[in-house]
Design a protein that fits this description.
Elements lengths: L1 H15 L5 H10 L23 H4 L6 H4 L4 E2 L4 H10 L5 H8 L20 E3 L5 E10 L5 E8 L4 E6 L2 E4 L5 E10 L8 E8 L4 E8 L1
Parallel strand pairs: 2-9
Antiparallel strand pairs: 1-3, 3-7, 4-6, 4-8, 5-7, 8-9
GO molecular function, one term: serine-type endopeptidase activity
Main location: secreted
Subcellular location: Secreted
Length: about 210
């Protein structure tokens, strides 16, 4: 029943924000999701006995229909971003990309990092020393607002954010920031998880983090 519920929420959200892109809607769903069920109990993975899950079990966590309508900040994407950071970043030939897009496409001389695709999650699949990724958020809440970062680093890592405080006003609606994830303890059990929460005191905008 998950897909019908999400479809209904997305339809309502699109009626409230008709100009939002699919990426903006996805961002609102993920960054406002809850770690616990409506009764305050942790979400459990299926099995016998039930176990505490990780994000690979529950995905973007439990959707919060009320919070989705007013997420505060969103991670947005345009088709050009997907071409630059995904198709060009993956190293596809420009001739193949042009054929797919039905127009002439040129990739940057320096291959972009796929990790910089502006998704509402950050995953580092092969962390050795440190990796820095860039994200851009768009303010869809009060025009004058300030968000401070709170970091829950994945176990075995150190995470820093620059800048740590984002200040929006009527002229500044988009701000980019960098997240650096560094390995401080090499673990052999696979992925570890954390999150980055930016809050203005009203909107806790949560960005899931994972590293391996």
């Amino acid at each position: 029943m998950a897909a019908p519920h999400i479809s209904g929420i997305v339809a309502l959200l699109k009626s409230m924000h008709p100009t939002w892109s699919p990426a903006a809607i996805k961002s609102a769903l993920i960054t406002t999701a809850q770690e616990k069920d409506p009764l305050g109990a942790p979400i459990l993975a299926e099995g016998s006995p039930p176990k505490l899950p990780d994000p690979f079990n529950y995905g973007g966590e439990l959707v919060n229909p009320n919070a989705v309508a007013d997420p505060g900040l969103i991670y947005d994407l345009a088709i050009a971003d997907c071409v630059k950071y995904y198709l060009c970043g993956m190293g596809y030939k420009t001739s193949h990309i042009s054929q797919l897009m039905k127009q002439k496409i040129g990739c940057p001389l320096q291959r972009p990092s796929v990790s910089d695709l502006n998704l509402p999650t950050i995953t580092v699949p092969a962390l050795r020393n440190s990796t820095t990724v860039t994200r851009t958020v768009t303010n869809v809440g009060k025009s004058s607002s300030m968000y401070r970062a709170v970091i829950r680093a994945p176990p075995g890592t150190r995470v820093s954010v620059e800048p740590r405080v984002l200040v929006f006003n009527s002229r500044v609606k988009k701000i980019s920031f960098k997240v650096t994830i560094s390995a401080v303890l090499h673990m052999n059990y696979g992925y570890s998880f954390g999150n980055l929460i930016g809050s203005d005191g009203v909107h806790p905008v949560k960005t899931p983090l994972s590293s391996n």
